[in-house]
Amino acid sequence: MSEEPKIVVSPHGPYRVVGRIPLSVQTITPNAKRESWDWTEGRKFDVGDEYFLCRCGQSKNKPFCDNSHLRVGFEGKETASRRPVERQSEHLDGPTDGLSDAEVLCAFARFCDPGGKIWSLIERTDRPEIRELVVREATHCPSGRLVLHEKATGRAIEPDLPPSIGLVEDPALQVSGPLWVRGGVRIESADGKAYERRNRVTLCRCGASTNMPFYNGSHASIQFQDGLG
Q: Closest Cα partner for 26 from 205, 165, 143?
């Protein structure tokens, strides 16, 4: 039997990707007001049953590892909390929905801004047009920082995402973003334990996150570029 699709964090090294998980460029596409509005898929990579993605940000063969982590002495210690994300979140209550906000996971993709920031809009979800915008803003968030819950049913409103990995490109800021891991792919720590399985997460690939292996927006401050955008 083939091994379960998963991403394994190597100690101070790359991500080992198992199970032929599709890999493609995913570009943040703005609206007429230059606000983050949609995702556009770009180049698709040919991948095998196993491949290794750069985690230190120094590879000359991005997005793949070329062992530059050894040359630069990369320190990639995992520092992220193992607590369920819901317990790390702030909770905001609206008329029809509740919003869970785990700020520590922010990938700085800015889908939460168009038409009014989601933290203000959540209070007006009894208006259908506002609720539609809130659902859009929450579900376009790549990291799963923002999760919307229907108050009537308690269910989380999640986009239907196939197991895959996106290489985020952000032309508005002229930077490259995180690895966008979608569809509940298992992410395994270097110690062999799995992190909470989620529909949307973002993993650091610039080497600068303070919440490894997850992203915290550091790519913007260091102007990380992978040359693929």
A: 165
